[in-house]
């Protein structure tokens, strides 16, 4: 999905929009700039516009002199028509809280709220930029600088401003914030089909797994993982991290394989690479949320009974050494009387973190539907098939034991 969406009225600013689109595509790349001419024949125009607007980082609304007053064959103002595509694009951007930048061309002025339908009133408060014919190249370069600095949009070219050396760090920071707040939008936007996007998704997954294990380790006593000298502890911690990374990658790989199979049965256009790229973000975010909630909950348990965790890990190590089934930590010596004050606050906080993570996962899961332009029933069917396959993989070995 493109990061820059160009909204314009054809009989108002086609020429200026074309010049602007050429400049943006030359700098950012064709795949990062969207305009309506890229919608394929036979596609649902409204659905395509909705997906593209909601997945965009920023919507550039090109406003010419006739943007407000353009009328149809019957003399009615187009903006007053709920079916007007320009009005629809602005309404979708406002509803999805996508950043909008009015771009004034050919001497146009910014419309006031009184000039607009009520549903577009907030558009009048957006800060506009002006592209003048007499200094077109300069103004476009300043717009590109702003898009890179404010929205951290990727570019195959270096920043126009040499001082923008921290652009990479800024871009990662913006992406992480967008992933946390608008996961479906960010994940769908990263499905450009480029090899770099797949590598970025895999890097995020690995980083999330490692950070998650570090968070878990922060809630444990290092002595429970490794004992001895500082060097021996360092080796033990490294082994803990490496083992956790490999196990989680194997689990993620199995889940991706099953999910790709499910989507393949529903939609033949859903390839393994695209499914894997989306799932990497979902799995990584879910893992971070689960680990954060776990370390808070473990801290609460430690306040209540400091030896409970040691007993549980000792039983785990003993069962692994004897190749016996992993036991459930015993609660018979667990004193629940102190379960109040700070411990109760931590337990509630841990539960809230897990709840927020579950909600985030549900929202982020919508990136599959948006990226594959699937219908609601296709998305539900693919998800149901995947859950069934995962349940079968878990259930069959248990029947053989």
- Kindly report the name of the CATH homologous superfamily of the largest domain: Toll/interleukin-1 receptor homology (TIR) domain
Molecular shape: elongated
- Count helical runs: 13
Tell how many strands the DSSP assignment holds: 5
Main beta-sheet annotation: 5 strands, parallel
**Alpha carbon gyration radius:** 26 Å
- How are the strands ordered across the major sheet? 2-1-3-4-5
- Helical fraction equals 55-70%
Identify the CATH class of the largest domain.
Alpha Beta
Report the β-strand fraction as a percent range.
5-15%
List keywords for this structure.
five-stranded parallel β-sheet, 13 helices, 401 residues, 5% strand, mainly alpha, Rossmann fold, 2 domains
Walkthrough of the structure:
The protein has 401 residues and is mainly alpha-helical. It folds into 2 domains: 178 residues, Rossmann fold (3-Layer(aba) Sandwich); 164 residues, no CATH class. Helices cover 62% and strands 5% of the residues. The chain is built from 13 helices and 5 strands. A 5-stranded parallel beta sheet has the order 2-1-3-4-5, with helices on both faces. Helix 2 packs parallel to helix 3 and helix 7 packs parallel to helix 10. It is elongated. About 2% of the residues have low confidence.
Give a brief rundown of this model.
The chain is mainly α.
Task: Give the helix/strand layout.
Elements: E1 4-7, H1 10-28, E2 33-34, H2 45-55, E3 58-63, H3 85-96, E4 99-105, E5 129-131, H4 136-151, H5 167-181, H6 183-189, H7 195-218, H8 222-225, H9 230-266, H10 272-304, H11 308-321, H12 342-371, H13 376-400
Parallel strand pairs: 1-2, 1-3, 3-4, 4-5
Helix pairs in contact: 2-3, 5-6, 6-12, 7-9, 7-10, 9-10, 9-13, 10-12
